[in-house]
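Why Phosphoinositide phospholipase C? Reviewers of the renewal asked for a concrete example.
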Amino acid sequence: MTYCFVLFFFAQDPMVQKMGGGRKKTVSFSSMPSEKKVSSASDCLAFMQGGCELKKIRPNSRVYCRFYTLDPDLSCLRWEPSKKDGERARLDVSSIREVRTGKSTETFLHNGPLSEHLAEEAAFSVIHGDEYQSLDLVALSADVANIWVTGLRYLLAHPSAIGGGGSSGFGGGVLCEGGGVAVEGSLGSKIRCEWLTTEFALVDEDGHGIVTEDVAVSTICKLCPGTREAKVRLRFKEIQRSKEKLTSHVTLEEFQEAYCELCTRPDVYFLLVQLSKDRECLDPQDLRLFLETEQGLSLATTEGCWELLRRYEPSEQGKERGLLGLDGFARYLQSPECQLLDPDHHGVCQDMNLPLSHYYISTSYRSYLLDDQVHGRADLGGLIKSLQSGCRCLELGVTDGPEGEPLLGVDYGSDVPKHHHHHHHHCAPVTIRSALEVVNKYAFLTSPYPLLIYLCHRCSPAQQQTMANHLKKVFGSRLYIPEDVPVNLGGRGTALPSPEQLKGRVVIVGKKLPADHQGSDGEVSEEDEEIGGGGPLAGRRMTIPGEEDLGVVLVVPPPSQPRKLRLHRDLSDLVAIARTGSRSFYAHRTRDKQQQSPPGSPSTPGTPVPPEPPYFTLCSLGEGEAGRLTSESPEDLVMFTKRTLTRVRPSSVRLDSSNPNPQGYWKGGVQLVALNQQTPGAMLDLHRGRFLQNGGSGYVLRPAVMRDEVSYFSAHTQGCVPGVPPQTLRIKVISAHNLPKPQGSGAKGEFIDPYVVLELHGVPADCAEQRTRTAAQNQDDPLFDETFEFQVNMPELALLRFVVLDDDYIGDDFIGQFSVAFECLQPGYRNVPLLGLSGDPLPHASLFVHVVITNRRGGGKAHRRGLSVRRVGRRGRGYVTLRNTGIKVVDETFKVAGGPLKEAADLREDAQSTTASFKEQCGLPTVAKLKQCIQSLATRLQSPEGSIGAAMVLKDGYPCLEPLVNLSEPTRKVLAAYDTMIASQKQLIENADYVQERIDQVQREGMDFHEELSRLGEKEGLKGRKLGKSVESFTWNITVLKGQSDLLRGAKMESLDALRQLALACEACGLTSSSSNINSSSSAEIHYSSHPQSGRRSSTHSNGRI
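Here is what the prediction returned.
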């Protein structure tokens, strides 16, 4: 019996791929786009027999457009026009050794500028002959390239199909309707057919072989969740119309046809064919190889693969035989364990024992307001939603209420935007007592870590006392008061408690009486946080846009002396962290500069150093003031936040409750960026993406350069950050699935024209935005197949946001988005679940992407895509250098590091470049895994009789390959590249510890000068700005030394793991001799022994990891 299932993908006109321009929005009345439909293996071969234009790339950078065809008997490829005679302008299929995708051959790699302009997804190479020559081709689109690659690989896997003769072109094939060729059903297609037959029989209660249309539709929607019922019904009606049926009943064949057409994902099919050698199903070994080489699960086990197979394969036959078919593979790729967000980040995964100032803290701003900041009504639902989303700092505005009971509301104070409006909302007031009870109920349901309550009030002392009583009564033992942890009155010498220490505690942030104040109440300075401090808005009269006729006016007062607030002792005593304004930042900066200056110097003529407060403080800044500080004093702001909590709130001008970009303040070190959690949009999306990083706990560690006592970082860096290795992020947006119509777009029809925007947010050097083309023909399951590349200089700060929009002349409507921190990205094939405007998941809607991150541990500089990674001569390398401080004794100490830093760079660069060269010789891209290289090499080393041409032998614990027979020149080149790589890895492993210790020693000696730097500078005559520059250079040098030490340590770990993977891969591919048991050699145990695998996932876990 022959099975032929239709798997639809499309050969698009390349002109359609232009992004958006010159195209009208159209409406289709059929279920499939009006493009040429191409089915799986049989139709691929039929397409190839019909022929198409391909570009042939020559090593001399010349490009020839040729028309390529496959002979009717499938025995050879032909092309025209050609200067060669007809018999020479051909390539026998039997001479083909392999088919490579992408630009991975010498021709592509060494064509420089030309290669850069050729699409990676549309390029492929046919390797042929005993000398492994390459025919390098570029198709008009990625779809056409996939057709040729799939067809040629099928012929390689089924040599019996070649030269079969007959009109079908297959010895054992059949002729399809319309004259196309058909292939005998693969193992996977047979299992799929039997599974669908079984499922159909379960709903065919009468056993007559027919079911009603309603039953067929519901069955398909159940088997393939996310499939739209209307789409299935339309397809059945088309089938019935084509057969001129008068009944709506569905037969088994029609059921199978509709299911395979609607529920087969071509992107998953192509991937499955590539992995399964055209069997259209994966066994546990195939699945393990996929997990190791593509998904980054280096410790995957066969047992874990069996469990995955049993979990996702829908057919009983597949489960019994240990085979994962197309539907099971698609279910696995769409499962939570294949999501882009690393499952390690689903829970708390960071150190929670550091001071509070070392963390970003999820902060809400007036989340209890239902409307805007002017007419907003207090409602407890907003508080509940904020706490449920993981917010760990809530602002509560409190005003005097009737009968002595404080109310929850907005305290504008004297600098409130004054407005006049004729309409007001009337609603029942919310007491602060009821608000506190709600907060207490939901405080720790989402996160166990401390909740900060930011109190803003101008209540009378009597109502402050009432509020204090409510706080103590409602929170009880949860309330953290200063006496719980003794505070050193020296202030600066005492770090804030950690989230772990304050677990389950409520911490009050507010105004506090001076420590030496006596009496039941007293006056404190109510320092303004936004515009009362003389900012650029001060003294201006502004009209709110869109409300000119209503007379809504914002009056910004001129600079004035800080207001005074009468504060009751009972409330002050409950405040654990005192709230201050920008003056505390300027006082801190003054102290630092005066302490850096020698005593009695002209720069500080008797100016007293502002004292530090004797308690913990939180500096609260307005949006405008914080923006100025991040622009004008970025280094000072980062230094200030190392010990002091800093908060930024939205500007008072944002009467519509809109939000600022939090990334602009996070990069300046600000821990608490308050956002209106009730206002959806891109800014809130970034906020949510940031705090997914640590299990949604509301606390995320800031980058190390913002925590280390001596480190250098500027929020406006335009290049590499000292001590932080840059990384390259490469994302291929493959497809989108089950996209809904944009919310509120009912008038625009039933169809969408989606495209995807990728936004990278981070330091200025990292910020970038790219987009795919618009998917034409009204597709809600579009294929994109477009690759984008981003350079990431500060990975710990970077956020990636995917946005799906509907292209329309009226305006591109929002469909869905997903934001994620760079540190949370998983490599390989991943699904990206899309979220709606409010942050809720869109049912079954997702993107399918492929992610590659190179240079993750800093193994040398990132290389441009498509260019050969050649071993750079040491003279041509750019080595990191240290700065001159102008202090002789310090510079002499740092000078000693020059040699070790150069050696460290050479060790890392040599290991990386030789590994890249080995991958190139294997015909694989530089992002390929070493196991893939060994598999490719093993294929070349295996003779037709099954013997191997080389074997792995352990020499001093290192896996070396020794030839056993005379090998061809190309294979000898691959082995030579392998030997060079092993030699470089050996050098790195055996010398890394010694070089690293020398770098660390210089760093320790340099730190000995830290406390005495000002005095040493005075001796050298450094003053004022010159002394500040000297301190900056010193900080830079310490940061570089620490970073280079960490890079070398990470590179050694990478090399150890590479050797282990090479040895295991050689063993798995049969390239081992009887004397090379990697588990028995004592020397091997040294190099393959277990070492910390911080970023690696292994064996079976409840979250589906393998």
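The chain is about 35% helix and 20% strand. This is the kind of structural detail the renewal will allow us to pursue systematically.
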